[in-house]
Amino acid sequence: xxxxxxxxxxxxxxxxxxxxxxxxxxxxxxxxxxxxxxxxxxxxxxxxxxxxxxxxxxxxxxxxxxxxxxxxxxxxxxxxxxxxxxxxxxxxxxxxxxxxxxxxxxxxxxxxxxxxxxxxxxxxxxxxxxxxxxxxxxxxxxxxxxxxxxxxxxxxxxxxxxxxxxxxxxxxxxxxxxxxxxxxxxxxxxxxxxxxxxxxxxxxxxxxxxxxxxxxxxxxxxxxxxxxxxxxxxxxxxxxxxxxxxxxxxxxxxxxxxxxxxxx
Length: 264
Prior knowledge:
The protein is α/β, with parallel strands linked by helices. The chain has helices spanning 3-12, 27-30, 39-43, 57-63, 96-101, 118-133, 154-166, 181-186, 203-215, 225-228, 233-246, 250-261, and strands spanning 19-23, 52-55, 72-75, 77-78, 91-92, 106-111, 139-143, 171-175, 192-195, 220-222. It has one domain: TIM Barrel, CATH 3.20.20. It is built from twelve helices and ten strands. Helix 6 (118-133) links the parallel strand 6 and strand 7 (139-143). The termini are far apart.
């Protein structure tokens, strides 16, 4: 691995081997998502506690302060919306030249294994890796499932993660599952970070699945809605950070959440 690749990965993955990525890219297919209508205001109090932002170029330019930012993972796939027929029909929307211009530490792209557009999205990933590796930029593959949440079982996720790694992704973002997440991680030869998916019912539920995933080999999280849609997002991100970086268990992290949310 050359110096540039090592340097960019070290910006994202901290010395303890763990990471906390904060995604605010949801608008690229959802539009003005609840609590993310004004992304710059949403992330301002959260930035001190995350390790990197996952964001599109448009929101990066318009809403993220370039003088006081965290490392950027640039979302470079898209082309579909919630109003369309199939969220899996994605293409590459942003060039590596643009990623360099924006000083991105990494680029991120979705793949939809098992969909009608499986081949297209996997070839998108392969093409992106070819181009990104020329410039020492790591690629994070996102094992997306579109609207088909029932696909989030260990067998499907293990298949998706392994294929993404085989095609050259340096990091894979995938969903946690309760039926063998350790097999998902163990079958993937590159680091795995956990997605949040739909917002959980309670803060404790979030803390429990993150803790379980970390115990089973994930290096960190890429959580958005379960942070900034929480009633107390600053308390939530600190509680999650305690699990990811401070080895807190769910009860300890939940106690921290409760104490922080009650502070004025």
